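can u do me a favor
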């Protein structure tokens, strides 16, 4: 698995929104609709339970090039054979996470303010999750929303691919890309849709159209 992944449509499987037993089916539907990377996030699961969940998602996506990464739990990512991990500012320092993951797995890092830009080392981290861009109810402890102008200012100082996260749905995916994001991370826009595959297809189309309009491709 290459560490250079297309962040276009990034699905976050969140246990606060979706029962972990439903993660594999939801991941499969989203990938069929165009999701390009899948993150497993369960803040309360034991290590063993999370390993089982990650393995179940990977098994459901067997044969797909879409990487599966684990939120926070770098140890679980390795134990479950995941493609990488995503850490926040209060988790393991990126250098420590990289040491555990090894050189071949993907590592993402959350950035929520200008002060955190200095924690991004391109030699260690592969991409940045920047946000929340807009207000979000999905993550109760999320930082205050950046808004478009502040997002653009921070993004301009980052030398890595950036996925926008926070309050992004059908009505705001294109705005995120026009603000400089290489892709968008979503939770409820897919998980709470009556047709996750169709929702993913619509979102991936919006992102592709916005990237083309922005002159990225």
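np, heres the sequence
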């Amino acid at each position: 698995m290459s560490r250079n992944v297309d962040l276009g449509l990034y699905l976050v499987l969140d246990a606060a929104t979706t029962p972990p037993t439903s993660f594999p089916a939801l991941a499969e539907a989203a990938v069929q609709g165009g999701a390009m990377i899948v993150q497993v996030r369960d803040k309360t699961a034991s290590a063993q339970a999370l390993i089982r969940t990650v393995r179940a998602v990977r098994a459901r996506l067997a044969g797909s090039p879409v990487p599966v990464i684990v939120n926070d739990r770098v140890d679980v990512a390795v134990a479950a054979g995941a493609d990488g991990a995503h850490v926040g500012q209060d988790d393991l320092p990126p250098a420590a996470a990289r040491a555990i993951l090894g050189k071949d797995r993907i590592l993402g890092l959350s950035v929520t303010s200008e002060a955190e830009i200095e924690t991004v080392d391109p030699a260690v981290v592969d991409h940045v999750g920047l946000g929340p861009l807009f207000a979000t109810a999905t993550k109760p402890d999320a930082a205050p929303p950046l808004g478009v102008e502040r997002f653009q200012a921070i993004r301009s100082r980052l030398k890595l691919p950036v996925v926008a996260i926070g309050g992004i749905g059908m009505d705001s995916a294109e705005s995120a890309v026009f603000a400089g994001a290489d892709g968008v991370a979503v939770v409820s826009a897919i998980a709470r849709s009556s047709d996750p595959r169709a929702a993913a297809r619509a979102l991936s189309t919006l992102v592709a159209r916005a990237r083309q309009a922005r002159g990225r491709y």
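Strands lie at 9-14, 37-41, 68-71, 84-87, 106-111, 127-130, 162-165, 183-186. hope that helps!!
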